[in-house]
Amino acid sequence: MTTDHTEPPGFLTGLELSRIFYEEAVRPLLDKEYPGLAYAAARVGSGSEVLGFDTPRSADHEWGPRLNLFLGRDAASEQAADLHRLLAERLPKQVRGWPTHFRHHDNPLDRVSGHMELTEGPVDHRVSVDDLAAWLGTQLGLHTETAAPTVRDWLWMPQQKLAETTGGAVFHDGLGTLTAVRERLAWYPDDVWRYLLACQWQRISQEEAFVGRCAEVGDDPGSAVVAGRLVRDLMRLCLLMERRYAPYSKWLGSAFARLPAAESLTPSLQGALAATAYPERERHLCDAYEIAGTLQNDTGLASAVDPSRRPYHSRPFLVLHAERFAQALTQTISDPALRNRPLYGGIDQWADNTDLLAHGLGDLRRQGALE
Fold first, then answer.
1. What sign has the CA pseudo-torsion 338, 187, 183, 163?
2. Which of 181, 214, 267, 313 is the most exposed place for a label (fewest CB within 10 A)?
3. Among candidates 181, 179, 183, which has minimal Cα distance to 41?
């Protein structure tokens, strides 16, 4: 990690390291060279530390002393380049033993990731300097930092990106707008939440019988694949019920494990994934359905629905008929346009391409391709 091959220092969480980096290195420079500058300092955006999932393994790329500086639009246009240059020339070479310089990987296919390394010259630091409105446009496809998102906006914003925007930490908000934006985006409006819950139950209903049907025709691998999809959908359902944005696949299980529901649901979900034969797989899934259905009823968001397993019409498969929960939730939505909207859901419920959700959606929205 370092040019002199010294041992890395003791691990700090990324958010704690970013706080120290701001307070001990960045803020003194700003106070001295730009007194009176209105800015916000935070650690938000991409990175496992923003979601609280970083470990010592995270230090191998794009982890370390990182910070987001947000300026007003005019200040960003006039001063961003100078600020970036000042930090490159005047930041300390390391903070608490962690280098502030990032060297890009030698792999020509990886032009973004970098890892910490000591340097004798200016540091290639990871302090971004952005206009907050422009950053939100790139991050979420929003057109302004002050207006409330529309229903269309909410349905197009990936949960991973919402988690990156509302997670992390704010160390200073001289603008005032960053804190307001994070509060505004902390969770979905009530009608949107109920609609997304209904759509998640609908997703489960679409495939719950396929576990048995695949097995019936001798396709046990297909049955297992469907079971895995249903386990993922149940985990995402529980995150929705608990008002937690679901991260992308790398951290989905970690986020689910932090929920109160995980204690009761995890044995059934693990059982469904580990099962090598259809009857056992179906039994574990039905146990999970019944627990999830009871949790849904306990929210009081809709009329209670019987959460017990039942035959799939005349076929010999046991299911929940999860569409019943979707229908009950739909009836509680006050906005007629949303209540009558097809149960396709938000972007995460019908697309799971990581590059699209993590990088491409904001660009497509700004181009008007998704309007």
1. negative
2. 313
3. 179
**pLDDT tens-digit map of 159-209:** 999 999 999 999 999 999 999 999 999 999 999 999 999 999 999 999 999
- Cβ neighbours of residue 92 closer than 8 Å, sequence gap 6 or more: 25, 100
Q: Tokens 């930041």 — which residue?
A: 91
- Three-state DSSP class for residue 125: coil
Q: How do beta strands 66-71 and 126-131 pair?
A: parallel
Look up the pTM and report it.
0.92
Q: Among residues 102, 87, 2, 11, which one has the least CA distance to residue 49?
A: 11
Domain range 190-340, CATH architecture: Up-down Bundle (1.20)
Kindly state the tokens that stand for 10. 């003791």
Helices of type H across the chain: 14-21, 27-33, 73-90, 132-140, 151-156, 159-166, 177-184, 190-207, 210-216, 220-241, 249-257, 262-274, 278-299, 323-330, 336-339, 347-350, 354-355, 361-366
Phi, psi of 312 (to 5 degrees): -90, 90
